[in-house]
Design goal:
three-stranded parallel sheet, four-stranded parallel sheet, binds 3-phosphoglyceric acid, 210 residues
């Protein structure tokens, strides 16, 4: 599963973090992001329609790799796997969730914000962790300091990332990709402004991972 996650993350420097109020806008947003060049998508499980949106994108949008985000409970793991999620991401980790994630048939990437959390994950064999909330926790400089003593762990910073600072994170050693909602703003989704989302994706897809 680690190799599968590495392969997924290497497809794209930016993973859109997406929140949908309905399935139809999820499908259109996913198409716009794909057409703009972002093909790895994280659909957060934080709205009543999120599971339906995740399923609709998986079933209806070709050429994208779709995972579930904001996975907080073992039930989320099971539901997301049932609809076909390719990967699972959590802002943090609990022992119940870690157990469910490691039993899942698809890669699970938990979140960390400190050296101790990162070391606990590494001890359990993790290779990839979400670094969350990246900006408020301390940004690229903090991450650089965190990575220094932990050379085997790779990170996906998320939280407060924008087109302006994304490259600063991507320049840090062991950063596989960054995640963020800036490529699919709530207003653009609500207004059906797919052209705006396509343009934001195009800009973001030009960023370069190390
Ligand atoms: C997440 O769940 O990863 C974050 O809420 C995304 O953070 P952002 O909205 O600051 O990009």
């Amino acid at each position: 599963k680690t190799e599968r996650l590495a392969a997924i993350l290497s497809q794209s420097p930016v993973i859109p973090v997406l929140t949908f109020e309905d399935a139809a806008s999820g499908v259109e947003t996913a198409k716009a992001l794909r057409d703009g060049g972002l093909k790895v998508l994280e659909v957060t499980l934080r709205t009543p329609a999120s599971m339906e949106a995740l399923k609709a994108i998986i079933d209806e949008v070709e050429g994208v790799t779709v995972g579930a985000g904001t996975v907080l409970e073992p039930e989320h793991v099971q539901d997301a796997v049932r609809v076909g999620a390719a990967f699972l991401i959590s802002p943090g980790v609990s022992s119940r969730l870690l157990a469910a994630g490691s039993e899942a048939p698809v890669p699970f990437m938990p979140g960390v914000a400190t050296a101790s959390e990162a070391m606990q994950l590494a001890e359990r064999g993790a290779t990839f962790a979400k670094f969350f909330p990246a900006g408020p926790a301390g940004g690229p400089d903090y991450l650089k300091a965190l990575v220094a003593p932990l050379p085997d762990l790779h990170f996906v910073p998320t939280g407060g990332i924008t087109l302006k600072n994304a490259q600063d994170y991507l320049a840090v050693r062991n950063v596989a990709a960054v995640g963020g909602s800036w490529v699919a703003p709530t207003d653009a989704i609500r207004n059906g402004d797919w052209a705006a989302i396509r343009a934001l994706a195009k800009e973001a897809s030009a960023l370069k991972a190390r």
